[in-house]
Design a protein that fits this description.
The protein is of the alpha+beta class. Helix content is about 35%, strand content about 25%. A hairpin with a 2-residue loop joins β11 (about 385-400) and β12. α4 packs across α8.
């Protein structure tokens, strides 16, 4: 052991009046004294332990035992007071009580999960004392909460055969131990019976979202992508919305949510689309990508193939959902920023105010680089910007002298209705400008959403 480490250890004993438990002592020097050092010291002590069966949650305690034996042959091993850092929580806490409390909460919520993460709440004074010791010794050591979390987490893993997961766990379990500390302080003799720990512990479970991605087709006009709350009552329900709280009876979001709600027993959901089409526009072809964020799902193990069939049966004739699969939260961001890298193909039925000839439609091949300001109809809720978009391909189909169809491939984010009308010259060039007559979009279908 290096001289610097010995000096820090002796100073730690001074700071705690020799009252420091094995867990806290080992924890403070976990970055300095390796597992190999601990095992070697225990071997020299003839300490009986199978090194292959040491749990991570036991290592700091064993490190503390080894340190105390190393310093002056165990002079500091004999202490009779309360640990001045953790107040003997490691000695007195009953893991069985915590596990029982967690299990009760899981059963109460009828919760299904495969992975978890443990968190704890401790008194502010304990955390501050722990941090103060670090500052005095000029060390960076494991937080006391991390040690407790590890102990509880390993026990829960063994009990449930579920996995501790530090990134994106299914649930986060938070055990509040603050009342346990208070009881240790105010009633230490009674506390040692360990009979009342269960009532002193409270458990909160955070259920993390589940994410499902896919594509949707909107087969009819007149339904929005997401639920539209009534503007008058803000979704509470009033006479204007027939007390439904919304302007439209259905949405793509609600059509998929109906069976998702039943399957997951969730609280609610959020629909994230890769752009959106207007309410009066169909979404056809291979569909529009989306991610459904399922908030607080109590059931997570889903057969998406069978669920997809149920969803499509429920939304039959209105919408169709394709390629459902689980995904991560990061897919939402990818969808939201993907517009510059996507193209859209539309089919529009266009009416002209004045007569047009078949040959006039050839002029529309001049639609190339489009300068488009945010349309008047949406500028109240979107930034008034000038966008530059590209028309990559265009075909026209003459119907009569006032009516024709146009199939057009463009950059994502180009407003097609305004490309047709001109939007009071906010879009240039436009179909109306090139044909020299006001034109209006009668019907519009999105037939492909793709990537370059």
């Amino acid at each position: 052991m290096e001289e610097e480490a010995i000096l820090k250890i002796k100073k730690l004993f001074e700071l705690t009046n020799n009252n420091i438990c094995d867990h806290c002592l080992g924890r403070k020097f976990s970055d300095i004294l390796s597992k190999e050092w601990v095992l070697n010291e225990l071997k020299n002590m003839d300490y009986s332990i199978d090194s292959t069966k040491i749990l991570d949650s036991e290592l700091n305690q064993l490190r503390g035992i080894a340190i105390k034996n190393k310093i002056d042959n165990g002079e500091y091993l004999k202490y009779y007071g309360k640990c001045e850092i953790c107040e003997n929580i490691f000695e007195n806490i009953n893991k069985e009580d915590i596990l029982k409390k967690i299990n009760e909460k899981v059963e109460f919520l009828s919760l299904e999960y495969d992975s978890f993460l443990i968190g704890t709440k401790l008194p502010k004074e304990v955390l501050e004392k722990d941090s103060w010791i670090n500052d005095e010794l000029n060390i960076e050591s494991e937080n006391i909460k991390k040690e407790i979390n590890r102990i509880i987490g390993e026990e829960l893993e063994l009990l449930t055969q579920k996995e501790v997961k530090f990134e994106n766990p299914d649930i986060v379990i938070v055990a509040d131990l603050r009342k346990v500390f208070k009881e240790m302080e105010t009633n230490p003799m009674k506390f040692h019976s360990l009979k009342d720990n269960h009532d002193l512990i409270s458990v909160r479970i955070q259920i993390n979202p589940l994410f499902i991605e896919g594509r949707y087709l909107k087969l009819i006009r007149g339904i929005p992508q997401t639920k539209w709350p009534c503007k008058k009552c803000k979704g509470r329900g009033c006479e204007s919305c027939n007390f439904t709280g919304k302007i439209y009876d259905e949405s793509i979001e609600e059509l998929i949510y109906h069976d998702i709600k039943i399957a997951t027993n969730c609280y609610k959901s959020k629909f994230h689309g890769a752009g959106r089409e207007d309410i009066d526009v169909k979404m056809l072809g291979n569909g529009r990508p989306f991610v459904l964020e399922i908030i607080e799902p109590k059931i997570r193990n889903l057969n998406l193939t069978k669920l997809n069939e149920k969803i499509n049966q429920y939304s039959k004739g209105k919408a169709k959902f394709l390629y459902l699969k689980f995904c991560s939260k990061s897919r939402i961001v990818e969808l939201k920023v993907s517009s510059p890298n996507t193209f859209k193909i539309y089919c529009a039925t266009i009416e002209s105010e004045n007569e047009i000839l078949r040959n006039d439609l050839k002029k529309l091949q001049n639609l190339g680089i489009i300068k488009q300001k945010t349309p008047i109809r949406v500028v109240h809720r979107r930034a008034d910007l000038l966008r530059t978009k590209n028309v990559m391909d265009l075909d026209t189909y003459f119907i009569n002298d006032h009516l024709f169809k146009m199939k057009i491939k463009t950059d994502g984010g180009l407003y097609i209705k305004e490309l047709i009308s001109g939007d009071n010259d906010r879009t240039k060039p436009s179909v109306s400008e090139i044909l020299n007559t006001p034109c209006f979009c009668k019907k519009l279908d999105v037939i492909e959403v793709g990537k370059y």
